[in-house]
Amino acid sequence: MPHLTVDDTTIYYEDAGTGAPILFLHGWGTSGRVWGAQVPEFAADHRVVVPDWRGCGRSGRPATGNDIAGVVGDLIELIGALGLTRPIVVGSSMGGAFATELALRRPDLVGGVVSVDSPGYWPAQGMDLPAIMSAIRGDRAGFIASWVPHWYAPGTSPALIDWTVRQILDSGTFADGQFAQFSTYDPRPVLPDLQVRIHYLHGELDAETPVAVARECAACTPGATVTVIPGAGHLPHQERPAEFNAALRVVLDPMLATV
């Protein structure tokens, strides 16, 4: 099992293919397995690296350091250890915020960002994270089982929803600490200073993070654009993989041309 140790925490990752690198980041509580429809597609002509961030999946469950700075620090170490030359960083949900923060803090390491249904900012989008934290503490299994179905568009396979719930329940509770910091997270004031090209890919029917959030973040960021995946909810790479992969291909070409 390939892994990297950062501050006594084991970070699991998968590394496939050759060519211009793409770094895929999953969302809260799941794992790199959510990119199962993207890895074989893009590893055919790119180097694809997919980590499980700390507290999730096959990585370690540290009691500390599970915040934005901790995960971004892990990514910096991973990029250096694997010799990735300015990868395009594709992040889903909370992973999109990590990708954006990595680009803001270390633009020299990043060739571009693709933010997939990322929260962008939470304080103004109507999600009560303190209430979510309280509900998770009170009945973790019950609340997650009732919450996750809303991440997906109507008609999504129950098997996919159940699999997502199982991944979250299998991950460590220390990843829950992310919610405390993200309850006040708002990058809009600094997005005008972003030196890395960013594109927002967003599910049309996302009920957790509406498309309007992506459009507002794009409006704050020089050169940013938005692509909407019809019929998809919060996780379009899983719900509409063929459409998502085609859209990502279109986004990657101009980004890679500038790296």
Automatic annotation (TrEMBL):
Organism: Actinocatenispora sera
Domain AB hydrolase-1 span(s) in chain numbering: 22-247
GO cellular component terms listed in the entry, alphabetical order: membrane
Keyword presence, Cell wall biogenesis/degradation: no
Cross-referenced InterPro entries: AB_hydrolase_1, AB_hydrolase_fold, AB_hydrolase_sf
Name of the protein described by the UniProt record: Alpha/beta hydrolase
Keyword tags: Hydrolase
Pfam family, one: Abhydrolase_6
Superkingdom of the organism of origin: Bacteria
Entry's Gene Ontology molecular function annotations: hydrolase activity
SUPFAM superfamilies, per the entry: alpha/beta-Hydrolases
